[in-house]
Amino acid sequence: MTTDTTQRQYGADKNGANATMGNQLTKYYFHKKALIEARKLQVFMQLADVRTMPKNSGKEIKQYHYLPLLDDANVNSQGIDAAGAVIANGNLYGSSKDIGTISGKLPLLSETGGRVNRVGFTRKEISGTFEKLGFFDEYTKESLDFDSDEELEMHINREMINGAHEITEDMLQIDLLSAAGVVRYAGNATSKLTIGADDVVAYKDLLALDIDLTNNRTPKSTTAITGTRLVDTKVIPGARIAYIGNELLTTLEKMVDFHGERAFTHVEKYAAGGTTLNGEVGQAGPFRFVVAPEMLRWAGAGADASGEAGLHYETAQKFDVFPILVVGDQSFTTIGFQTDGKTVKFDIKHKKPGLDTADRNDPYGETGFMSIKWFYGFMALRPERIGLILTAATL
What we know:
By secondary structure, the chain is α+β, with helices and mostly antiparallel strands. The protein folds into two domains: 1-67 and 122-395; 68-119, no CATH class. Helices cover 15% and strands 24% of the residues. The protein has five helices and 16 strands. It has helices at 99-104, 141-145, 152-179, 203-215, 249-254; strands spanning 60-66, 123-140, 182-185, 222-225, 233-236, 240-244, 264-266, 280-284, 287-291, 314-315, 318-319, 322-327, 332-334, 346-351, 367-380, 386-391. A seven-stranded mixed beta sheet has the order 3-16-12-6-9-8-7, sandwiched between helices. The longest helix is centred in the middle third of the chain and has 28 residues, at 152-179.
């Protein structure tokens, strides 16, 4: 148990010059709203298939995923072929697209029928766990009474919510990057360690990822949560969604298609034709790109950059590796800050200095606190619908 009692204080100086919140702006006219960082927009949470975990049900979500008949993952022991012989698998020809394979495994019937062409179905169990998170802030009564910002309490409360929101976004981003079922490397790279100056995402890499996702039956229409109620959703048609950091914008601007034409189209060129997502910047090929301000990267995880001419992002003379994350519709579920109209997924407790906080450790009730806690859970429903391109980025 820690004994640290450091709190936010107004300060010993009569003008609050050494306050823990910083100097007090008592002599200057300022517009408070201009000094408050704009609330970060929801980026990853807007695509979540949000579910509510009922009480008394543990801390783990479990769900069955029923596999399609014609899928290589549908492995079972119930197969009988058209000749009546028991075979190792009951998924007919699975995911094959070979004409010869399909022709030889079609479920043909003779005039008398018979005990032939038995197939089988399988399901897999997927699960996700929950974690409880939270933090708190302490303050003194004088820090509110004498601070030059009469709305300090409201601002701190809002920043706590924004901080919790950003933590949740970061956790979700890490889970999505880890859950990606389709991973491709730009250029000739075969791993993060081999990504170098020439391994920068190109138009062909986008098309290759799109083909993989299409083969995995990833839809191109995406449902996005746009409000604070689960029923407030919009369908984003026409392309798949790809998340990038703003460091990759230069790379996209330089991208050309197979005809040497500019491949990237800015969002303002097509925004009037449909719904756009928070942070959407443009489209290239089959993908619509959304800039996540806090998009993560693997700093210095690439190849040796000691002989580099400073044209790429690098850390400690190693190339930085940047993700292009593609999230297909209904590929994951999570708990976020959206509500179902009745309950809220996060909880704020605030006890102001006074009777509520007075005890033997603070008999005068001069200190107060605010705390926030929430649950976060993630479950990959269809990891094969989450695609990832790992690339270097040009300056």
